[in-house]
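Notebook B, p. 112. Complex prediction, attempt 2.
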Amino acid sequence: MNALQLALAYLRQRPLATALNVLLLALGVATITVLLLFSRQVERNLAAGAEGVDFVIGAKGSPLQLILSSVYHLDTPTGNIPLAEADSVAAHPAVASVIPLALGDSYHGFRIVGTDSTYVALYGGRLSAGRLWSGPGEVVLGARVAEAEGLGVGAAVVSEHGVSAGAAEHGEPLRVVGVLAPGAAVLDGLILTAVGTVWAVHGLSPEHAADLPPGFELPPPQLTALLVEASSPAAVAIFPRWVNAETNLMAAVPAVEIQRLLRLLGVGFATLRLFGVVLLAAAALGVFIALYNAMRERRYDLAVMRSLGASRAKLLALVLLEGLLLAGLGLAAGLALGHATVEALGRLAAGDGTTLALTGRTWAPAEWGLVALILGVGLAAALLPGLLAYRTDVARTLAAP
Amino acid sequence: MIALHDVRHGYGGLPVLDLPDLTVPQGGRLLVLGPSGSGKSTLLHVLAGVLRPDAGRVEVAGGDLYAMGEHARDRFRGKHLGLVFQRLHLIGALTVAQNLRLAPALAGLPVEAARVRDVLAALDLADRADAYPHQLSAGQQQRVAIGRAVMNRPRVLLADEPTASLDDRRTEAVLALLLEQAETNGATLVVATHDRRIMDAFEHRLVLEEVLA
Protein backbone atom coordinates (compact mmCIF):
# COMPACT_ATOMS: atom_id res chain seq x y z
CA MET A 1 0.00 0.00 0.00
CA ASN A 2 2.41 2.69 -1.12
CA ALA A 3 1.64 6.25 -2.13
CA LEU A 4 1.42 5.35 -5.83
CA GLN A 5 -1.18 2.62 -5.24
CA LEU A 6 -3.13 4.98 -3.01
CA ALA A 7 -3.09 7.77 -5.61
CA LEU A 8 -4.15 5.32 -8.34
CA ALA A 9 -6.97 4.00 -6.12
CA TYR A 10 -8.28 7.55 -5.66
CA LEU A 11 -8.10 8.23 -9.42
CA ARG A 12 -10.01 5.01 -10.08
CA GLN A 13 -12.62 6.00 -7.50
CA ARG A 14 -13.81 8.87 -9.75
CA PRO A 15 -13.30 7.50 -13.26
CA LEU A 16 -15.39 10.17 -15.03
CA ALA A 17 -13.54 13.16 -13.60
CA THR A 18 -10.22 11.42 -14.19
CA ALA A 19 -11.10 10.53 -17.80
CA LEU A 20 -12.33 14.07 -18.53
CA ASN A 21 -9.18 15.66 -17.16
CA VAL A 22 -6.91 13.24 -18.98
CA LEU A 23 -8.85 13.88 -22.20
CA LEU A 24 -8.61 17.68 -21.88
CA LEU A 25 -4.91 17.48 -21.15
CA ALA A 26 -4.37 15.03 -24.01
CA LEU A 27 -6.14 17.30 -26.53
CA GLY A 28 -4.07 20.30 -25.50
CA VAL A 29 -0.84 18.32 -25.56
CA ALA A 30 -1.74 16.74 -28.93
CA THR A 31 -2.48 20.14 -30.49
CA ILE A 32 0.86 21.55 -29.40
CA THR A 33 2.70 18.35 -30.35
CA VAL A 34 1.25 18.48 -33.87
CA LEU A 35 2.29 22.12 -34.08
CA LEU A 36 5.84 21.41 -32.90
CA LEU A 37 6.35 18.43 -35.21
CA PHE A 38 4.68 20.12 -38.16
CA SER A 39 6.43 23.48 -38.00
CA ARG A 40 9.82 21.87 -37.37
CA GLN A 41 9.50 19.48 -40.30
CA VAL A 42 8.10 22.12 -42.64
CA GLU A 43 10.98 24.45 -41.82
CA ARG A 44 13.48 21.63 -42.25
CA ASN A 45 11.94 20.53 -45.53
CA LEU A 46 11.93 24.08 -46.82
CA ALA A 47 15.54 24.62 -45.81
CA ALA A 48 16.66 21.27 -47.28
CA GLY A 49 14.94 22.01 -50.59
CA ALA A 50 16.65 25.36 -50.97
CA GLU A 51 20.09 24.04 -50.04
CA GLY A 52 22.62 25.08 -52.69
CA VAL A 53 20.11 27.14 -54.68
CA ASP A 54 21.03 30.84 -54.55
CA PHE A 55 18.24 31.93 -56.85
CA VAL A 56 15.79 30.61 -59.38
CA ILE A 57 15.14 31.99 -62.84
CA GLY A 58 11.83 31.47 -64.60
CA ALA A 59 8.99 33.19 -66.39
CA LYS A 60 7.64 36.41 -64.93
CA GLY A 61 4.89 36.02 -62.34
CA SER A 62 4.80 35.58 -58.61
CA PRO A 63 8.26 34.97 -57.15
CA LEU A 64 6.76 32.86 -54.34
CA GLN A 65 4.95 30.75 -56.95
CA LEU A 66 8.19 30.31 -58.90
CA ILE A 67 10.02 29.11 -55.78
CA LEU A 68 7.16 26.83 -54.71
CA SER A 69 6.78 25.30 -58.16
CA SER A 70 10.41 24.87 -59.17
CA VAL A 71 12.15 24.26 -55.81
CA TYR A 72 9.44 22.46 -53.80
CA HIS A 73 7.19 21.28 -56.67
CA LEU A 74 4.12 22.44 -54.73
CA ASP A 75 2.50 25.04 -57.00
CA THR A 76 1.91 25.26 -60.76
CA PRO A 77 4.81 26.73 -62.76
CA THR A 78 4.70 30.42 -63.71
CA GLY A 79 5.23 29.54 -67.39
CA ASN A 80 8.12 28.61 -69.62
CA ILE A 81 11.21 30.48 -70.82
CA PRO A 82 12.96 30.14 -74.20
CA LEU A 83 16.06 27.96 -74.05
CA ALA A 84 18.12 30.67 -75.78
CA GLU A 85 17.38 33.22 -73.06
CA ALA A 86 18.11 30.67 -70.38
CA ASP A 87 21.45 29.95 -72.05
CA SER A 88 22.39 33.61 -72.13
CA VAL A 89 21.69 33.93 -68.39
CA ALA A 90 23.70 30.80 -67.67
CA ALA A 91 26.64 32.31 -69.53
CA HIS A 92 26.64 35.45 -67.34
CA PRO A 93 29.78 35.84 -65.17
CA ALA A 94 27.65 36.15 -62.01
CA VAL A 95 26.47 32.59 -62.53
CA ALA A 96 28.64 29.70 -61.37
CA SER A 97 26.37 26.85 -62.48
CA VAL A 98 22.76 26.20 -63.48
CA ILE A 99 20.44 23.22 -63.29
CA PRO A 100 17.73 23.18 -65.99
CA LEU A 101 14.19 22.15 -65.08
CA ALA A 102 11.40 21.27 -67.53
CA LEU A 103 8.13 20.82 -65.65
CA GLY A 104 4.47 20.43 -66.40
CA ASP A 105 3.80 16.69 -66.45
CA SER A 106 3.06 14.16 -63.78
CA TYR A 107 2.26 10.52 -63.11
CA HIS A 108 -0.52 9.76 -60.58
CA GLY A 109 0.16 13.14 -58.96
CA PHE A 110 3.96 12.67 -58.78
CA ARG A 111 5.68 15.34 -60.84
CA ILE A 112 7.90 14.47 -63.76
CA VAL A 113 10.98 16.70 -63.89
CA GLY A 114 13.14 17.03 -66.98
CA THR A 115 16.64 17.92 -65.80
CA ASP A 116 20.23 16.66 -65.78
CA SER A 117 22.28 14.65 -63.30
CA THR A 118 23.45 17.78 -61.44
CA TYR A 119 19.92 18.01 -60.01
CA VAL A 120 20.41 14.62 -58.34
CA ALA A 121 23.82 15.69 -57.07
CA LEU A 122 22.39 18.93 -55.62
CA TYR A 123 20.37 16.98 -53.03
CA GLY A 124 22.95 14.23 -52.55
CA GLY A 125 20.70 11.67 -54.21
CA ARG A 126 22.01 8.09 -54.38
CA LEU A 127 20.62 5.24 -56.45
CA SER A 128 19.18 2.30 -54.54
CA ALA A 129 18.59 0.35 -57.77
CA GLY A 130 19.43 0.63 -61.47
CA ARG A 131 21.12 3.66 -63.03
CA LEU A 132 20.41 7.27 -63.95
CA TRP A 133 18.64 8.12 -67.21
CA SER A 134 20.91 8.30 -70.24
CA GLY A 135 18.50 9.45 -72.90
CA PRO A 136 14.88 10.39 -73.68
CA GLY A 137 12.25 7.90 -72.58
CA GLU A 138 14.10 6.79 -69.46
CA VAL A 139 13.07 7.86 -65.94
CA VAL A 140 14.41 7.51 -62.38
CA LEU A 141 11.91 7.34 -59.50
CA GLY A 142 12.21 9.05 -56.12
CA ALA A 143 12.04 6.63 -53.18
CA ARG A 144 8.55 7.67 -52.07
CA VAL A 145 7.18 7.41 -55.63
CA ALA A 146 8.56 3.88 -56.02
CA GLU A 147 7.11 2.86 -52.65
CA ALA A 148 3.68 4.47 -53.08
CA GLU A 149 3.19 3.17 -56.64
CA GLY A 150 4.92 -0.16 -56.10
CA LEU A 151 7.19 0.41 -59.10
CA GLY A 152 10.76 -0.74 -59.70
CA VAL A 153 13.36 -0.88 -62.44
CA GLY A 154 11.83 -2.10 -65.71
CA ALA A 155 8.34 -0.75 -64.98
CA ALA A 156 6.65 1.75 -67.30
CA VAL A 157 4.95 5.04 -66.45
CA VAL A 158 2.77 7.11 -68.74
CA SER A 159 3.18 10.87 -68.56
CA GLU A 160 0.03 12.85 -67.84
CA HIS A 161 -0.31 16.47 -68.85
CA GLY A 162 -0.54 18.84 -65.92
CA VAL A 163 0.65 18.47 -62.38
CA SER A 164 -2.43 17.10 -60.65
CA ALA A 165 -3.50 13.46 -60.46
CA GLY A 166 -6.02 12.26 -63.03
CA ALA A 167 -4.82 14.46 -65.90
CA ALA A 168 -4.99 13.28 -69.49
CA GLU A 169 -2.31 10.79 -70.52
CA HIS A 170 -0.14 11.54 -73.47
CA GLY A 171 2.93 10.23 -75.21
CA GLU A 172 4.71 6.90 -75.18
CA PRO A 173 5.22 5.02 -71.88
CA LEU A 174 8.46 5.95 -70.14
CA ARG A 175 10.76 3.20 -68.88
CA VAL A 176 11.98 3.15 -65.25
CA VAL A 177 15.76 2.60 -65.27
CA GLY A 178 16.59 3.51 -61.68
CA VAL A 179 15.23 4.21 -58.17
CA LEU A 180 16.75 6.69 -55.72
CA ALA A 181 17.48 5.91 -52.08
CA PRO A 182 15.20 7.71 -49.59
CA GLY A 183 16.30 10.85 -47.76
CA ALA A 184 17.12 13.01 -50.78
CA ALA A 185 14.87 15.98 -49.84
CA VAL A 186 12.39 16.88 -52.59
CA LEU A 187 13.73 14.17 -54.93
CA ASP A 188 11.92 11.51 -52.85
CA GLY A 189 8.59 12.58 -54.35
CA LEU A 190 9.68 13.21 -57.96
CA ILE A 191 10.12 11.31 -61.22
CA LEU A 192 13.34 12.46 -62.92
CA THR A 193 14.19 12.26 -66.56
CA ALA A 194 16.09 14.09 -69.30
CA VAL A 195 14.84 17.48 -70.52
CA GLY A 196 14.56 15.86 -73.93
CA THR A 197 11.97 13.41 -72.61
CA VAL A 198 9.63 16.25 -71.64
CA TRP A 199 10.11 17.86 -75.06
CA ALA A 200 9.42 14.55 -76.82
CA VAL A 201 6.24 13.97 -74.81
CA HIS A 202 4.99 17.38 -75.90
CA GLY A 203 5.97 16.84 -79.56
CA LEU A 204 8.66 19.45 -79.41
CA SER A 205 11.70 17.38 -80.40
CA PRO A 206 13.39 18.25 -83.70
CA GLU A 207 12.23 14.93 -85.20
CA HIS A 208 8.62 16.07 -84.79
CA ALA A 209 9.15 18.92 -87.27
CA ALA A 210 8.32 16.69 -90.24
CA ASP A 211 4.91 15.82 -88.75
CA LEU A 212 3.78 19.43 -88.59
CA PRO A 213 1.20 20.66 -91.13
CA PRO A 214 2.48 23.19 -93.70
CA GLY A 215 2.74 26.74 -92.38
CA PHE A 216 3.51 25.65 -88.82
CA GLU A 217 6.94 25.81 -87.33
CA LEU A 218 8.30 24.04 -84.29
CA PRO A 219 8.40 26.58 -81.44
CA PRO A 220 11.86 27.22 -79.99
CA PRO A 221 12.80 24.74 -77.22
CA GLN A 222 11.80 25.88 -73.75
CA LEU A 223 12.64 25.29 -70.12
CA THR A 224 10.50 26.02 -67.06
CA ALA A 225 13.15 27.24 -64.66
CA LEU A 226 16.84 27.35 -63.86
CA LEU A 227 18.23 26.66 -60.39
CA VAL A 228 21.23 28.94 -60.17
CA GLU A 229 24.35 28.86 -58.01
CA ALA A 230 25.91 32.32 -57.93
CA SER A 231 29.61 32.86 -58.46
CA SER A 232 29.93 35.12 -55.39
CA PRO A 233 27.88 36.43 -52.47
CA ALA A 234 27.79 39.82 -54.16
CA ALA A 235 26.22 38.20 -57.20
CA VAL A 236 23.38 36.83 -55.07
CA ALA A 237 22.55 40.37 -54.04
CA ILE A 238 22.88 42.06 -57.41
CA PHE A 239 22.16 39.58 -60.18
CA PRO A 240 18.46 38.84 -59.44
CA ARG A 241 17.69 42.58 -59.51
CA TRP A 242 19.47 42.91 -62.84
CA VAL A 243 17.52 39.94 -64.30
CA ASN A 244 14.19 41.36 -63.14
CA ALA A 245 14.93 44.81 -64.51
CA GLU A 246 16.75 44.08 -67.76
CA THR A 247 15.35 40.79 -69.12
CA ASN A 248 11.98 39.18 -69.78
CA LEU A 249 12.80 36.63 -67.10
CA MET A 250 12.24 36.67 -63.35
CA ALA A 251 14.74 35.79 -60.64
CA ALA A 252 13.60 34.84 -57.16
CA VAL A 253 15.71 34.12 -54.08
CA PRO A 254 14.50 31.02 -52.15
CA ALA A 255 15.73 32.34 -48.77
CA VAL A 256 13.63 35.50 -49.17
CA GLU A 257 10.52 33.67 -50.37
CA ILE A 258 10.78 31.02 -47.61
CA GLN A 259 10.84 33.80 -45.04
CA ARG A 260 7.74 35.27 -46.64
CA LEU A 261 6.03 31.86 -46.64
CA LEU A 262 6.92 31.16 -43.01
CA ARG A 263 5.53 34.57 -42.05
CA LEU A 264 2.27 33.59 -43.75
CA LEU A 265 2.27 30.15 -42.08
CA GLY A 266 3.24 31.82 -38.80
CA VAL A 267 -0.25 33.30 -38.44
CA GLY A 268 -1.73 29.83 -38.70
CA PHE A 269 0.84 28.39 -36.31
CA ALA A 270 0.16 31.16 -33.80
CA THR A 271 -3.58 30.49 -33.97
CA LEU A 272 -3.04 26.78 -33.43
CA ARG A 273 -0.63 27.49 -30.56
CA LEU A 274 -3.16 29.78 -28.89
CA PHE A 275 -5.79 27.06 -29.27
CA GLY A 276 -3.46 24.54 -27.65
CA VAL A 277 -2.62 26.89 -24.78
CA VAL A 278 -6.32 27.57 -24.14
CA LEU A 279 -6.97 23.80 -24.05
CA LEU A 280 -4.09 23.32 -21.64
CA ALA A 281 -5.28 26.15 -19.41
CA ALA A 282 -8.76 24.60 -19.31
CA ALA A 283 -7.18 21.23 -18.50
CA ALA A 284 -5.06 22.72 -15.72
CA LEU A 285 -8.16 24.34 -14.23
CA GLY A 286 -9.99 21.01 -14.54
CA VAL A 287 -7.24 19.16 -12.68
CA PHE A 288 -7.19 21.86 -10.00
CA ILE A 289 -10.98 21.76 -9.49
CA ALA A 290 -11.07 17.97 -9.46
CA LEU A 291 -8.31 17.73 -6.86
CA TYR A 292 -9.69 20.62 -4.81
CA ASN A 293 -13.15 19.03 -4.64
CA ALA A 294 -11.61 15.63 -3.98
CA MET A 295 -9.69 17.06 -1.01
CA ARG A 296 -12.86 18.57 0.45
CA GLU A 297 -14.72 15.28 0.07
CA ARG A 298 -11.74 13.48 1.45
CA ARG A 299 -11.00 15.52 4.53
CA TYR A 300 -12.16 12.67 6.78
CA ASP A 301 -9.92 10.28 4.86
CA LEU A 302 -7.02 12.67 5.32
CA ALA A 303 -7.67 13.01 9.04
CA VAL A 304 -7.87 9.22 9.36
CA MET A 305 -4.56 8.86 7.55
CA ARG A 306 -3.01 11.36 9.93
CA SER A 307 -4.44 9.37 12.85
CA LEU A 308 -2.88 6.22 11.37
CA GLY A 309 0.53 7.86 11.55
CA ALA A 310 0.91 9.63 8.17
CA SER A 311 2.79 12.91 8.48
CA ARG A 312 1.55 16.18 6.97
CA ALA A 313 4.32 15.97 4.38
CA LYS A 314 3.15 12.50 3.35
CA LEU A 315 -0.38 13.75 2.66
CA LEU A 316 0.96 16.71 0.66
CA ALA A 317 3.14 14.31 -1.34
CA LEU A 318 0.14 12.05 -1.94
CA VAL A 319 -1.92 14.88 -3.47
CA LEU A 320 1.02 16.13 -5.55
CA LEU A 321 1.54 12.58 -6.81
CA GLU A 322 -2.12 12.43 -7.82
CA GLY A 323 -1.70 15.67 -9.79
CA LEU A 324 1.47 14.35 -11.40
CA LEU A 325 -0.25 11.07 -12.32
CA LEU A 326 -3.14 12.92 -13.98
CA ALA A 327 -0.68 15.12 -15.87
CA GLY A 328 1.45 12.11 -16.81
CA LEU A 329 -1.52 10.19 -18.18
CA GLY A 330 -2.72 13.22 -20.17
CA LEU A 331 0.80 13.85 -21.41
CA ALA A 332 1.34 10.27 -22.60
CA ALA A 333 -2.05 10.14 -24.31
CA GLY A 334 -1.52 13.58 -25.88
CA LEU A 335 1.95 12.80 -27.21
CA ALA A 336 0.70 9.51 -28.67
CA LEU A 337 -2.27 11.27 -30.27
CA GLY A 338 -0.14 14.12 -31.63
CA HIS A 339 2.49 11.84 -33.17
CA ALA A 340 -0.18 9.56 -34.63
CA THR A 341 -1.95 12.58 -36.16
CA VAL A 342 1.22 13.89 -37.83
CA GLU A 343 2.08 10.38 -39.06
CA ALA A 344 -1.42 10.01 -40.53
CA LEU A 345 -1.21 13.46 -42.17
CA GLY A 346 2.19 12.53 -43.59
CA ARG A 347 0.90 9.29 -45.08
CA LEU A 348 -2.15 11.02 -46.51
CA ALA A 349 0.05 13.67 -48.12
CA ALA A 350 2.62 11.12 -49.39
CA GLY A 351 -0.06 9.31 -51.39
CA ASP A 352 -0.97 12.67 -52.93
CA GLY A 353 2.46 13.22 -54.40
CA THR A 354 3.65 16.09 -52.25
CA THR A 355 7.39 16.66 -51.98
CA LEU A 356 7.10 17.77 -48.32
CA ALA A 357 7.73 14.67 -46.23
CA LEU A 358 6.00 14.51 -42.80
CA THR A 359 6.46 11.82 -40.21
CA GLY A 360 5.18 11.28 -36.65
CA ARG A 361 8.05 8.91 -35.91
CA THR A 362 10.36 11.66 -34.78
CA TRP A 363 10.88 13.66 -31.61
CA ALA A 364 11.22 17.43 -31.66
CA PRO A 365 13.55 18.69 -28.90
CA ALA A 366 10.90 21.28 -28.00
CA GLU A 367 8.70 18.38 -26.88
CA TRP A 368 10.93 17.98 -23.81
CA GLY A 369 9.84 21.50 -22.91
CA LEU A 370 6.23 20.39 -23.32
CA VAL A 371 6.84 17.40 -21.01
CA ALA A 372 8.31 19.68 -18.33
CA LEU A 373 5.49 22.21 -18.80
CA ILE A 374 2.70 19.62 -18.38
CA LEU A 375 4.25 17.94 -15.34
CA GLY A 376 4.72 21.44 -13.88
CA VAL A 377 1.06 22.22 -14.60
CA GLY A 378 0.05 18.98 -12.82
CA LEU A 379 2.14 19.90 -9.78
CA ALA A 380 0.91 23.49 -9.71
CA ALA A 381 -2.73 22.42 -9.96
CA ALA A 382 -2.21 20.01 -7.06
CA LEU A 383 -0.38 22.50 -4.86
CA LEU A 384 -3.35 24.30 -3.27
CA PRO A 385 -5.37 21.08 -2.72
CA GLY A 386 -2.15 19.60 -1.35
CA LEU A 387 -1.79 22.46 1.15
CA LEU A 388 -5.40 21.85 2.15
CA ALA A 389 -4.44 18.25 2.90
CA TYR A 390 -1.27 19.43 4.64
CA ARG A 391 -3.27 21.67 6.97
CA THR A 392 -5.91 19.08 7.91
CA ASP A 393 -6.76 19.51 11.60
CA VAL A 394 -7.19 15.91 12.73
CA ALA A 395 -9.05 16.47 15.99
CA ARG A 396 -11.43 19.07 14.58
CA THR A 397 -12.17 17.04 11.45
CA LEU A 398 -12.77 13.79 13.31
CA ALA A 399 -14.95 15.50 15.92
CA ALA A 400 -17.07 17.26 13.31
CA PRO A 401 -20.59 15.83 13.01
CA MET B 1 -0.23 2.19 30.16
CA ILE B 2 -1.71 5.64 30.41
CA ALA B 3 -0.81 8.42 32.84
CA LEU B 4 -2.36 11.90 32.83
CA HIS B 5 -1.17 14.70 35.09
CA ASP B 6 -3.26 17.82 35.60
CA VAL B 7 -4.64 17.89 32.08
CA ARG B 8 -6.81 20.88 31.28
CA HIS B 9 -8.35 21.95 27.99
CA GLY B 10 -10.98 24.40 26.87
CA TYR B 11 -12.46 25.93 23.76
CA GLY B 12 -12.70 29.70 23.47
CA GLY B 13 -12.13 30.27 27.18
CA LEU B 14 -14.71 27.65 28.17
CA PRO B 15 -13.12 24.80 30.16
CA VAL B 16 -14.16 21.40 28.82
CA LEU B 17 -11.68 19.08 30.43
CA ASP B 18 -10.15 19.40 33.91
CA LEU B 19 -8.70 16.11 35.08
CA PRO B 20 -6.82 15.20 38.22
CA ASP B 21 -4.11 12.56 37.87
CA LEU B 22 -5.31 9.43 36.13
CA THR B 23 -3.38 6.19 35.64
CA VAL B 24 -4.36 3.01 33.82
CA PRO B 25 -1.85 0.13 33.87
CA GLN B 26 -0.76 -1.64 30.66
CA GLY B 27 -3.48 -4.08 29.64
CA GLY B 28 -6.06 -2.29 31.81
CA ARG B 29 -9.50 -1.20 30.66
CA LEU B 30 -10.85 2.29 31.14
CA LEU B 31 -14.41 3.32 30.47
CA VAL B 32 -15.00 7.07 30.03
CA LEU B 33 -18.65 7.77 30.72
CA GLY B 34 -20.55 10.97 30.26
CA PRO B 35 -23.25 12.74 28.26
CA SER B 36 -22.60 14.58 25.01
CA GLY B 37 -20.51 17.68 25.53
CA SER B 38 -18.82 16.37 28.65
CA GLY B 39 -15.41 16.26 26.98
CA LYS B 40 -15.18 12.55 26.15
CA SER B 41 -14.02 13.13 22.57
CA THR B 42 -11.68 15.86 23.72
CA LEU B 43 -10.08 13.46 26.20
CA LEU B 44 -9.72 10.78 23.53
CA HIS B 45 -8.18 13.23 21.06
CA VAL B 46 -5.75 14.32 23.75
CA LEU B 47 -4.87 10.67 24.42
CA ALA B 48 -4.51 10.02 20.69
CA GLY B 49 -1.99 12.82 20.34
CA VAL B 50 -4.03 14.84 17.84
CA LEU B 51 -5.08 17.62 20.26
CA ARG B 52 -2.55 19.39 22.46
CA PRO B 53 -4.19 20.22 25.80
CA ASP B 54 -3.89 23.72 27.26
CA ALA B 55 -1.98 22.29 30.21
CA GLY B 56 -0.78 18.99 31.69
CA ARG B 57 1.35 16.02 30.82
CA VAL B 58 0.09 13.06 28.79
CA GLU B 59 1.99 9.77 28.90
CA VAL B 60 0.64 7.05 26.65
CA ALA B 61 2.31 3.72 25.85
CA GLY B 62 5.53 4.91 27.46
CA GLY B 63 5.77 8.14 25.46
CA ASP B 64 5.34 11.72 26.69
CA LEU B 65 3.12 12.66 23.72
CA TYR B 66 3.27 16.45 23.75
CA ALA B 67 6.98 16.58 24.51
CA MET B 68 7.53 15.08 21.03
CA GLY B 69 7.64 17.04 17.82
CA GLU B 70 4.62 16.71 15.56
CA HIS B 71 6.30 14.35 13.11
CA ALA B 72 7.59 12.08 15.90
CA ARG B 73 4.10 12.10 17.47
CA ASP B 74 2.57 11.05 14.11
CA ARG B 75 5.02 8.13 13.91
CA PHE B 76 4.46 7.20 17.56
CA ARG B 77 0.69 7.23 17.10
CA GLY B 78 0.93 5.09 13.98
CA LYS B 79 3.07 2.48 15.71
CA HIS B 80 1.65 2.27 19.21
CA LEU B 81 -1.94 3.56 19.19
CA GLY B 82 -5.05 2.12 17.56
CA LEU B 83 -8.07 4.37 17.00
CA VAL B 84 -11.71 3.44 16.41
CA PHE B 85 -14.04 6.33 15.70
CA GLN B 86 -17.78 6.68 16.05
CA ARG B 87 -17.95 7.39 12.34
CA LEU B 88 -15.94 4.59 10.88
CA HIS B 89 -13.85 6.55 8.37
CA LEU B 90 -12.89 3.64 6.17
CA ILE B 91 -11.17 4.79 2.97
CA GLY B 92 -13.84 4.34 0.28
CA ALA B 93 -11.36 4.08 -2.58
CA LEU B 94 -9.64 1.09 -1.01
CA THR B 95 -10.70 -2.52 -0.49
CA VAL B 96 -11.02 -4.07 2.99
CA ALA B 97 -7.57 -5.64 2.74
CA GLN B 98 -6.07 -2.37 1.47
CA ASN B 99 -7.68 -0.46 4.35
CA LEU B 100 -5.94 -2.85 6.73
CA ARG B 101 -2.61 -2.61 4.89
CA LEU B 102 -2.84 1.18 5.10
CA ALA B 103 -2.22 1.08 8.87
CA PRO B 104 1.31 -0.38 8.80
CA ALA B 105 2.10 1.41 5.50
CA LEU B 106 1.33 4.87 6.89
CA ALA B 107 3.06 4.09 10.20
CA GLY B 108 6.22 3.17 8.28
CA LEU B 109 6.05 -0.48 9.37
CA PRO B 110 6.50 -3.51 7.08
CA VAL B 111 3.20 -4.77 5.63
CA GLU B 112 2.86 -8.46 6.51
CA ALA B 113 0.40 -10.41 4.39
CA ALA B 114 0.05 -13.01 7.15
CA ARG B 115 -1.00 -10.34 9.68
CA VAL B 116 -3.67 -9.06 7.26
CA ARG B 117 -5.01 -12.62 6.86
CA ASP B 118 -4.98 -13.24 10.63
CA VAL B 119 -6.83 -10.02 11.44
CA LEU B 120 -9.41 -10.66 8.72
CA ALA B 121 -9.93 -14.20 9.99
CA ALA B 122 -10.25 -13.07 13.62
CA LEU B 123 -12.93 -10.56 12.56
CA ASP B 124 -14.77 -13.13 10.42
CA LEU B 125 -14.04 -11.08 7.28
CA ALA B 126 -11.76 -13.49 5.41
CA ASP B 127 -14.11 -13.69 2.40
CA ARG B 128 -14.59 -9.89 2.17
CA ALA B 129 -10.92 -8.97 1.72
CA ASP B 130 -11.44 -7.57 -1.80
CA ALA B 131 -14.80 -5.89 -1.15
CA TYR B 132 -15.07 -2.10 -0.97
CA PRO B 133 -16.50 -0.50 2.20
CA HIS B 134 -19.77 0.51 0.51
CA GLN B 135 -20.39 -3.16 -0.31
CA LEU B 136 -20.30 -4.14 3.37
CA SER B 137 -23.02 -4.16 6.02
CA ALA B 138 -22.74 -1.65 8.88
CA GLY B 139 -21.59 -4.43 11.22
CA GLN B 140 -18.91 -5.57 8.79
CA GLN B 141 -17.68 -1.98 8.39
CA GLN B 142 -17.40 -1.68 12.16
CA ARG B 143 -15.30 -4.86 12.26
CA VAL B 144 -13.00 -3.54 9.51
CA ALA B 145 -12.50 -0.32 11.48
CA ILE B 146 -11.55 -2.33 14.59
CA GLY B 147 -9.29 -4.53 12.46
CA ARG B 148 -7.48 -1.49 11.07
CA ALA B 149 -7.00 -0.14 14.61
CA VAL B 150 -5.37 -3.39 15.84
CA MET B 151 -3.30 -4.09 12.69
CA ASN B 152 -0.07 -2.73 14.17
CA ARG B 153 -0.55 -4.57 17.54
CA PRO B 154 -1.02 -1.24 19.34
CA ARG B 155 -0.21 -0.89 23.03
CA VAL B 156 -3.22 1.35 23.51
CA LEU B 157 -6.57 0.96 21.76
CA LEU B 158 -8.83 4.04 21.84
CA ALA B 159 -12.50 3.83 20.86
CA ASP B 160 -14.79 6.87 20.67
CA GLU B 161 -18.49 6.00 21.00
CA PRO B 162 -18.09 2.67 19.15
CA THR B 163 -21.57 1.48 20.12
CA ALA B 164 -23.56 4.69 19.92
CA SER B 165 -25.63 3.79 16.89
CA LEU B 166 -25.94 0.05 17.58
CA ASP B 167 -28.73 -2.08 19.06
CA ASP B 168 -28.14 -4.21 22.18
CA ARG B 169 -27.07 -7.33 20.34
CA ARG B 170 -24.55 -5.50 18.14
CA THR B 171 -23.31 -3.46 21.09
CA GLU B 172 -22.46 -6.67 22.88
CA ALA B 173 -20.73 -8.09 19.81
CA VAL B 174 -18.62 -4.97 19.22
CA LEU B 175 -17.72 -4.70 22.87
CA ALA B 176 -16.72 -8.36 22.99
CA LEU B 177 -14.60 -7.83 19.90
CA LEU B 178 -12.84 -4.77 21.37
CA LEU B 179 -12.13 -6.59 24.66
CA GLU B 180 -10.95 -9.68 22.82
CA GLN B 181 -8.70 -7.74 20.44
CA ALA B 182 -7.27 -5.66 23.31
CA GLU B 183 -6.53 -8.85 25.22
CA THR B 184 -5.06 -10.71 22.22
CA ASN B 185 -2.76 -7.79 21.46
CA GLY B 186 -1.99 -7.01 25.11
CA ALA B 187 -3.35 -3.50 24.61
CA THR B 188 -4.71 -1.02 27.10
CA LEU B 189 -8.32 -0.31 26.13
CA VAL B 190 -10.04 3.05 26.49
CA VAL B 191 -13.67 3.35 25.45
CA ALA B 192 -15.51 6.65 25.60
CA THR B 193 -19.28 6.36 25.61
CA HIS B 194 -22.54 7.61 27.03
CA ASP B 195 -23.82 4.04 26.77
CA ARG B 196 -24.27 2.65 30.30
CA ARG B 197 -25.07 -0.80 28.87
CA ILE B 198 -21.39 -1.67 28.64
CA MET B 199 -20.18 -0.53 32.07
CA ASP B 200 -19.74 -3.97 33.60
CA ALA B 201 -16.77 -5.04 31.49
CA PHE B 202 -14.44 -2.28 32.76
CA GLU B 203 -12.50 -2.22 35.97
CA HIS B 204 -11.57 1.47 35.64
CA ARG B 205 -14.23 4.11 35.15
CA LEU B 206 -14.02 7.81 34.67
CA VAL B 207 -17.29 9.70 34.79
CA LEU B 208 -17.28 13.12 33.16
CA GLU B 209 -19.96 15.69 33.94
CA GLU B 210 -21.63 17.91 31.42
CA VAL B 211 -19.98 21.29 31.29
CA LEU B 212 -22.43 24.08 31.98
CA ALA B 213 -21.82 27.38 30.39
